[in-house]
Write the C-alpha coordinates for this entry.
Amino acid sequence: MSETLVTVEGVSKTYYREKQPIPVLDRLSLTISRGDFLALMGPSGSGKTTLLNLLAGIDKPTAGKIVVDGQDISGYSEGELAAWRSRTTGFIFQLYNLIPVLTAFENVELPLLLTRLSRRERTEHVMHALDIVALTDRAHHYPRQLSGGQEQRVSIARAIVVDPLLLLADEPTGDLDAKSAEEILTLLNRLNTEFQKTIVMVTHDPKAAGRARRTLHLEKGQLVTGAA
Protein backbone atom coordinates (compact mmCIF):
# COMPACT_ATOMS: atom_id res chain seq x y z
CA MET A 1 0.00 0.00 0.00
CA SER A 2 1.33 3.43 -0.98
CA GLU A 3 2.18 5.92 1.72
CA THR A 4 -0.26 8.82 2.06
CA LEU A 5 1.31 12.20 1.31
CA VAL A 6 -1.78 14.46 1.43
CA THR A 7 -4.97 14.17 3.47
CA VAL A 8 -7.83 16.59 2.87
CA GLU A 9 -10.40 16.16 5.62
CA GLY A 10 -13.84 17.81 5.57
CA VAL A 11 -12.54 20.93 3.84
CA SER A 12 -14.93 23.76 3.02
CA LYS A 13 -14.06 27.09 1.45
CA THR A 14 -16.37 30.09 1.34
CA TYR A 15 -15.60 33.45 -0.20
CA TYR A 16 -17.59 36.61 0.43
CA ARG A 17 -18.76 39.19 -2.09
CA GLU A 18 -19.54 42.14 0.13
CA LYS A 19 -21.49 40.21 2.82
CA GLN A 20 -22.86 37.55 0.50
CA PRO A 21 -21.29 34.10 1.15
CA ILE A 22 -20.15 32.19 -1.94
CA PRO A 23 -19.45 28.54 -1.03
CA VAL A 24 -16.85 26.94 -3.33
CA LEU A 25 -15.87 23.70 -1.57
CA ASP A 26 -18.27 21.74 0.63
CA ARG A 27 -16.83 19.30 3.21
CA LEU A 28 -14.50 17.72 0.68
CA SER A 29 -12.26 14.83 1.71
CA LEU A 30 -9.61 12.94 -0.27
CA THR A 31 -6.20 11.34 0.09
CA ILE A 32 -3.25 11.53 -2.28
CA SER A 33 -0.55 8.88 -2.12
CA ARG A 34 3.15 9.65 -2.44
CA GLY A 35 4.03 9.24 -6.12
CA ASP A 36 0.45 9.69 -7.36
CA PHE A 37 -0.46 11.62 -10.53
CA LEU A 38 -3.97 12.93 -9.98
CA ALA A 39 -6.10 14.83 -12.51
CA LEU A 40 -8.89 17.06 -11.22
CA MET A 41 -11.73 17.66 -13.66
CA GLY A 42 -15.06 19.47 -13.50
CA PRO A 43 -16.97 22.43 -14.91
CA SER A 44 -15.86 26.01 -14.36
CA GLY A 45 -16.71 27.08 -10.82
CA SER A 46 -16.61 23.53 -9.46
CA GLY A 47 -13.75 24.35 -7.07
CA LYS A 48 -10.81 22.72 -8.88
CA THR A 49 -8.45 25.68 -8.79
CA THR A 50 -9.56 26.57 -5.26
CA LEU A 51 -8.61 23.07 -4.11
CA LEU A 52 -5.25 23.38 -5.90
CA ASN A 53 -4.58 26.71 -4.17
CA LEU A 54 -5.40 25.15 -0.79
CA LEU A 55 -3.01 22.26 -1.45
CA ALA A 56 -0.34 24.79 -2.43
CA GLY A 57 -0.80 26.82 0.74
CA ILE A 58 -1.74 29.85 -1.38
CA ASP A 59 -5.13 29.98 0.37
CA LYS A 60 -6.52 28.62 3.64
CA PRO A 61 -9.70 26.56 4.18
CA THR A 62 -12.73 28.01 5.92
CA ALA A 63 -13.23 24.68 7.71
CA GLY A 64 -11.56 21.27 7.80
CA LYS A 65 -7.88 20.44 7.62
CA ILE A 66 -5.16 19.71 5.11
CA VAL A 67 -2.21 17.54 6.14
CA VAL A 68 0.84 17.30 3.86
CA ASP A 69 3.69 14.95 4.77
CA GLY A 70 2.43 14.82 8.36
CA GLN A 71 2.09 18.60 8.74
CA ASP A 72 -1.32 20.17 9.30
CA ILE A 73 -0.95 23.33 7.22
CA SER A 74 -4.54 24.55 7.60
CA GLY A 75 -3.73 26.51 10.74
CA TYR A 76 -0.44 27.99 9.56
CA SER A 77 0.05 31.76 9.54
CA GLU A 78 0.78 33.53 6.24
CA GLY A 79 4.49 33.62 7.09
CA GLU A 80 4.56 29.92 7.98
CA LEU A 81 2.72 29.07 4.76
CA ALA A 82 5.18 31.09 2.67
CA ALA A 83 8.15 29.27 4.22
CA TRP A 84 6.39 25.90 3.83
CA ARG A 85 5.54 26.58 0.17
CA SER A 86 9.14 27.45 -0.67
CA ARG A 87 10.28 24.06 0.63
CA THR A 88 7.42 21.77 -0.30
CA THR A 89 5.46 22.78 -3.41
CA GLY A 90 6.08 23.67 -7.03
CA PHE A 91 3.32 25.41 -9.02
CA ILE A 92 2.85 25.29 -12.81
CA PHE A 93 0.55 27.95 -14.24
CA GLN A 94 -1.52 27.89 -17.45
CA LEU A 95 -0.01 31.20 -18.63
CA TYR A 96 3.53 30.39 -17.42
CA ASN A 97 3.88 33.47 -15.11
CA LEU A 98 7.44 34.11 -16.25
CA ILE A 99 9.02 37.51 -15.65
CA PRO A 100 9.68 39.05 -19.11
CA VAL A 101 12.84 40.97 -18.15
CA LEU A 102 14.54 37.84 -16.73
CA THR A 103 16.20 35.08 -18.75
CA ALA A 104 15.05 31.47 -18.54
CA PHE A 105 17.94 30.84 -16.10
CA GLU A 106 16.96 33.79 -13.91
CA ASN A 107 13.26 32.81 -13.88
CA VAL A 108 14.14 29.28 -12.77
CA GLU A 109 16.56 30.61 -10.15
CA LEU A 110 13.94 32.79 -8.43
CA PRO A 111 12.71 30.20 -5.85
CA LEU A 112 16.32 29.47 -4.87
CA LEU A 113 16.95 33.10 -3.90
CA LEU A 114 14.90 32.35 -0.76
CA THR A 115 17.33 29.58 0.24
CA ARG A 116 20.82 29.61 1.74
CA LEU A 117 22.41 28.02 -1.31
CA SER A 118 25.57 29.61 -2.63
CA ARG A 119 25.63 31.12 -6.12
CA ARG A 120 27.50 28.07 -7.42
CA GLU A 121 24.97 25.71 -5.86
CA ARG A 122 22.08 27.73 -7.30
CA THR A 123 23.65 27.53 -10.74
CA GLU A 124 24.01 23.74 -10.45
CA HIS A 125 20.36 23.37 -9.38
CA VAL A 126 19.07 25.64 -12.16
CA MET A 127 21.06 23.90 -14.90
CA HIS A 128 19.93 20.49 -13.65
CA ALA A 129 16.28 21.61 -13.78
CA LEU A 130 16.75 23.06 -17.26
CA ASP A 131 18.43 19.83 -18.34
CA ILE A 132 15.41 17.81 -17.16
CA VAL A 133 13.12 19.93 -19.36
CA ALA A 134 15.66 19.88 -22.25
CA LEU A 135 16.29 23.64 -22.30
CA THR A 136 19.91 24.12 -21.26
CA ASP A 137 20.56 25.66 -24.69
CA ARG A 138 17.91 28.32 -23.97
CA ALA A 139 19.17 29.27 -20.50
CA HIS A 140 20.03 32.83 -21.50
CA HIS A 141 17.00 33.46 -23.70
CA TYR A 142 14.20 35.76 -22.56
CA PRO A 143 10.55 34.57 -22.56
CA ARG A 144 9.81 36.61 -25.73
CA GLN A 145 12.48 34.55 -27.52
CA LEU A 146 10.80 31.24 -26.62
CA SER A 147 7.80 29.38 -27.99
CA GLY A 148 4.78 28.76 -25.74
CA GLY A 149 5.86 25.17 -25.16
CA GLN A 150 9.36 26.30 -24.22
CA GLU A 151 7.96 28.92 -21.84
CA GLN A 152 5.90 26.25 -20.12
CA ARG A 153 8.98 24.04 -19.82
CA VAL A 154 10.81 26.94 -18.14
CA SER A 155 7.82 27.24 -15.80
CA ILE A 156 8.12 23.53 -15.00
CA ALA A 157 11.87 23.87 -14.39
CA ARG A 158 11.13 26.72 -11.96
CA ALA A 159 8.54 24.52 -10.21
CA ILE A 160 10.93 21.57 -9.74
CA VAL A 161 14.17 23.46 -8.98
CA VAL A 162 13.63 23.23 -5.20
CA ASP A 163 12.90 19.46 -5.50
CA PRO A 164 9.37 19.84 -4.08
CA LEU A 165 7.34 17.07 -2.48
CA LEU A 166 4.21 18.16 -4.34
CA LEU A 167 3.92 19.46 -7.91
CA LEU A 168 0.70 21.35 -8.67
CA ALA A 169 -0.37 22.21 -12.22
CA ASP A 170 -3.31 24.48 -13.13
CA GLU A 171 -4.35 23.77 -16.76
CA PRO A 172 -0.69 23.33 -17.81
CA THR A 173 -1.62 22.60 -21.45
CA GLY A 174 -4.56 25.02 -21.70
CA ASP A 175 -2.70 27.67 -23.72
CA LEU A 176 -0.68 25.34 -25.96
CA ASP A 177 -1.08 23.80 -29.41
CA ALA A 178 -1.59 20.04 -29.61
CA LYS A 179 2.08 19.17 -30.25
CA SER A 180 3.39 21.34 -27.39
CA ALA A 181 0.64 20.06 -25.08
CA GLU A 182 1.67 16.47 -25.80
CA GLU A 183 5.31 17.33 -25.01
CA ILE A 184 4.32 18.90 -21.68
CA LEU A 185 2.17 15.89 -20.72
CA THR A 186 5.05 13.55 -21.60
CA LEU A 187 7.35 15.64 -19.41
CA LEU A 188 4.89 15.51 -16.50
CA ASN A 189 4.65 11.73 -16.91
CA ARG A 190 8.45 11.52 -16.78
CA LEU A 191 8.57 13.66 -13.63
CA ASN A 192 6.05 11.29 -12.05
CA THR A 193 7.56 7.97 -13.13
CA GLU A 194 11.29 8.69 -13.29
CA PHE A 195 11.61 11.33 -10.57
CA GLN A 196 8.72 10.06 -8.40
CA LYS A 197 7.08 13.49 -8.19
CA THR A 198 3.58 13.57 -6.73
CA ILE A 199 1.49 15.62 -9.17
CA VAL A 200 -1.98 17.15 -8.93
CA MET A 201 -3.19 18.60 -12.23
CA VAL A 202 -6.34 20.62 -12.93
CA THR A 203 -7.53 20.16 -16.51
CA HIS A 204 -10.60 20.45 -18.72
CA ASP A 205 -9.01 18.16 -21.32
CA PRO A 206 -9.94 14.45 -21.10
CA LYS A 207 -6.83 13.59 -23.15
CA ALA A 208 -4.62 15.35 -20.58
CA ALA A 209 -6.47 13.64 -17.73
CA GLY A 210 -5.89 10.31 -19.45
CA ARG A 211 -2.14 10.71 -18.85
CA ALA A 212 -2.66 10.77 -15.07
CA ARG A 213 -2.80 7.68 -12.87
CA ARG A 214 -6.32 8.55 -11.73
CA THR A 215 -8.97 11.23 -12.21
CA LEU A 216 -11.34 12.83 -9.73
CA HIS A 217 -14.34 14.92 -10.76
CA LEU A 218 -15.62 17.94 -8.86
CA GLU A 219 -19.04 19.48 -9.16
CA LYS A 220 -20.37 22.29 -6.98
CA GLY A 221 -17.51 21.85 -4.53
CA GLN A 222 -17.89 18.12 -4.01
CA LEU A 223 -16.29 14.98 -5.47
CA VAL A 224 -18.94 13.28 -7.59
CA THR A 225 -17.10 10.28 -9.11
CA GLY A 226 -13.93 8.38 -8.43
CA ALA A 227 -13.57 9.78 -4.90
CA ALA A 228 -10.68 8.51 -2.84
Remarks:
- Residues 178-193 form the longest helix (16 residues).
- The longest strand covers residues 4-17.
- The chain is about 30% helix and 30% strand.
- Strands lie at 4-17, 20-33, 37-41, 63-68, 71-72, 89-92, 166-170, 198-202, 214-219, 222-225.
